[in-house]
Amino acid sequence: MAVYALTGFSLVSLLSFGYLSWDWMKPSLVADVATDPMEKSLPPAFARPPHIIFILTDDQGYHDVGYHGSDIQTPTLDRLAAEGVKLENYYIQPICTPSRSQLITGRYQIHTGLQHSIIRPRQPNCLPLDQVTLPQKLQEAGYSTHMVGKWHLGFYKKECLPTRRGFDTFLGSLTGNVDYYTYDNCDGPGVCGYDLHEGEDVAWDQSGKYSTFLYAQRVSKILASHSPKEPIFIYVAFQAVHTPLQSPKEYIYRYRSMGNVARRKYAAMVTCMDEAVKNITWALKKYGYYDNSVIVFSTDNGGQTFSGGSNWPLRGRKGTYWEGGVRGIGFVHSPLIKRKRRTSWALVHITDWYPTLVSLARGNLSNVPGLDGYNVWPAISEGKESPRTEILHNIDPLYNHAKYGSLEDGFGIWNTAVQASIRVGEWKLLTGDPGYSDWIPPQTLTNFPGSWWNLERLTDGLRKSVWLFNITADPYERYDLSDQRPDVVRTLLMRLVHYNRTAIPVRYPAENPRAHPDFNGGAWGPWASEDDGEEWEDGREPVKNRNKKKKCKICKLRSFFRKLNTRLMSNRI
C-alpha cells in the first residue's frame, strides 16, 4: 500500500498512534456524566404538550463539536449535550435537501421522489404537495409553528412555500446557500438574486444583518410574543456553517493561531452559531418555556472537508455515503428526559423525529400511514432499546453508475453499478460509487497537503462496486468484508431489492428559465402560477404535459424567456 508523507507524519503513523481507534472518545470528552441517585428527576407524564425547539445546522462536520474532541469552541452545545442525551449512533443524509425532506415528512427520499441530488433554484420541483408535513401535524395538535432559517425544499409555486406547508411564520432563505450579509445567491454566472423572505414577501429591509444573529434574534422575538401556556414548535435551520465562509471578525480573531485559513473561518462560524444557540436557550428560560421544553440538535449532513469542515476520524465527507457523510451530531436536551446526562447508542435516523415529536405533542399519526420513522422517545428518555434496526441510506438510480458494477456482481438480484447504501443491524452495505473515499484529519496546518487523501481510492476503490462493513466493530470503515461474507452481502442486497420495489419515480425536472430572479424583481421566489401542472420527470427527461393546448402555450412562453435571457446575458457580457 502506498504511503504518502504528511508534514512529518503519515496515514500509517496516524493509525499506529491510535487516531483511528474507538479509544479516541476519551471519557473527558464524551463519557456519561454520572447521575446523582438523590437527584429529583423523572417528571411524570407531561402535564401538557412540551414546547419543541428543533435546531438544524448546515454542513457541520462530525468532529466539529467540543465533546467530539474538536479544537473548535462550542461550550453551549457541550453543556446542553452533557446535561441531556448524546446520540452517538445517529444518522442523517449526505446532502441538504434529502435530510430536510426526511425530517419534515418522516419518509425515506425514495418515497418522496427526492432520491437524486438536491432541489435546485431553477427547477420546477418541491416537496411533494401530497405529503403531510411535521408542522402540519403539530398544528393539528394545537401548536403554534414557526420556521427560521434555510428551507431548501423548493419554491417554484406558492403552494411549496413554508407558510403553505405548515408554518405559521417564516423568516429565512428558500435556496441552498446565500451570502450571510447580503443574502444574494447565484445559481451560475449572471443568474443571481436576493433570497431572504419574511412569510411570502421578500425581506429587503433585513439585508446587512449577519444571518446567524438575525435568526437567533427572531427566535427570541417569537418566544417573547407567545404565551408559554400554549405549545409552540420552532424549527431553527441555521445557514451556518455552509459556505460562503463568513463570520464577524471578532470570532475569527479567536482562531488566529490556526494556519489553515478555511478552517479558521469555519471555526469562527461554528463558535458564532454556538453562541446563537446559547441566546435561544436563554430566551427559553427568560420567557418561561424551558421547564416544559424539548430541544433537539442535529446536523444535516457531514462536513465539507475542502471548506474547513472535519469528520475525523470517520471516513468520507459531505455528499458521500461513508460514515463521514451520514453520521451526524445529535443530542436532545430537556428537563422532561427521565434518564439525563448520558450517551445513547440507540440507532436513530432523521426520519424518526417526525413520529417522535408528533407523539410527544399528543398528535394523531393514524392518518399518516407508511412512515419510515419510528418513535424513539422511550429510547432517548428512558434508555430503552431503539425500535429501529435498519436504515436505508438511499437508492439513487440517476447517479453516475459505477464503471465496474454489474448485475452479476450482485448475485443476479441487484445491479451493483447503482449507487445505494443500507444499514441492517451492525452491517452496512454500499454499492455503486459511494463518493469520495478518505480519512482527513482536522485541517489545522497551513497548506495542508492532499495527495494522500486519495489513498483508499487509489489502492482498492477503482475496481470495486460493493463494500461491506461491520460498523459496530469498525466504525471507521477500514476493513471491507464483502469477500469474506458474501452471505451477508446477499442478505443486504435483498433488502435493497425490497426497498426499491416501494420507490416512486425520481422527481428531478429540467431547469426553467422563468425562475430567473430578473423576472421576479431581482429576488428568488415562486414563478409558476397555481394553474401550472407539476412537470416531474421519471429519469432525466421532462414528462410531457397531458394537456396539449397548455403544453403548447408553455413551450412558446419558454422559448420567449429563453431568447430574452440570452439577450440579457449578452448585454452583461
TrEMBL record:
Biased composition (Acidic residues): 529-538
Co-factor requirement: Ca(2+)
Pfam families (alphabetical): Sulfatase
Entry coiled-coil feature ranges: none
Record has Metal-binding as a keyword: yes
Domain Sulfatase N-terminal: 50-361
Domain of life the protein comes from: Eukaryota
Keyword match Calcium: yes
Entry-linked SUPFAM superfamilies: Alkaline phosphatase-like (SSF53649)
Annotated protein name in UniProt: ARSI Arylsulfatase
Source organism per UniProt: Smithornis capensis
Gene name of this polypeptide: Arsi
